Amino acid sequence: MRAAKLRWRIEHDYREMKQALGLAHFEGRTWRGWHHHVTLVSVAHAFCTLQRITRSPKETAPA
């Protein structure tokens, strides 16, 4: 059961990185450029995840 939940989380994060953070938008030709792009998307995803985790329950409730 735990593995199934982990798989869902990974798929959700990958979809978020592709759609919201631009992982699929790289059009360069070099390994170095692709690596920089993936690194920046990963850092942006980590930042968004930390913001979501540290947000208090009051901030997530609708106004």
Could you explain the architecture of this structure?
The structure is a single chain. The protein has one domain (2-60). Helices cover 73% and strands 0% of the residues. It has helices at residues 2-19, 31-54, 57-60. The longest helix has 24 residues, at 31-54. It is extended, with a radius of gyration of 15 Å. The termini are far apart. The mean pLDDT is 88.
SSE order: HHH
Name the helicity range: over 70%
State the end-to-end CA separation: 35 Å
Structural class based on helices, strands and sheet pairing: mainly alpha
Main sheet characteristics: none
Instruction: List the total number of helices.
Output: 3
Could you give the count of β-strands? 0
Low-confidence stretches: none
**Overall pLDDT, averaged?**
88
Shape: extended
Note the beta-strand portion.
under 5%
Taking all Cα atoms into account, the compactness measure Rg is 15 Å
Q: What number of structural domains do the residues give?
A: 1
Protein name: Transposase
InterPro entries: IS701-like, RNaseH-like_sf
Short descriptors:
IS701-like, mainly alpha, RNaseH-like_sf
Secondary structure elements and pairings:
Elements: H1 2-19, H2 31-54, H3 57-60
InterPro entries: IS701-like, RNaseH-like_sf
Protein name: Transposase
